[in-house]
Amino acid sequence: MNVIGISGTPRKKGNSELLLRYALKPFENNAWNVKIFLLSELEIKPCNACDSCRETGTCIINDDMQEIYDAFRWCNAIIISSPVYYLNVSAQLLSLLDRHYAVKVKKPLEGKVGGAIAVGNGTSGGQAITINAIHAWMLSCGIICVPGELHGVKAVADKPGDILNQENRLKQAEILGFNILKTAKLLQK
Fold this sequence. Notes:
The chain is an alpha/beta fold.
């Protein structure tokens, strides 16, 4: 089975990326095929609202989103992480979420399983809003949202690597991954 992880941080090895990697560990331990997309290394342009995808079924923007469209069809599960910027997902992740519009009619993610991770730099940093934004997008795609211990994984961290000192949050990310894996397996039966 196949899982994709999408790290929405523009910061290489940012805290939300590190938590995503912990969430993917259960999949690696169970011999799943794992692909991770780091938006810090990819070029995903914003949707330009040309609507040509409605006529042709293909987005005319030629960038790294084409590989992600393929991964949407390939995967059985998806985990998305984002830092919290102004009480929402990062601009890089928002571009990716918006660009799903080009394949929405084909429903490549319908019936698949997913979960969300959000990291902000304070306890009122908008983590819940960011989790809700990712889950709302997932639900609009037909993805079955799976919780970790609670809703999604919410963490407080600021400087790169801070999250590695928070054993409980690392464990919560693994629990999220395990719950998604378990649900995906149940759906395959």
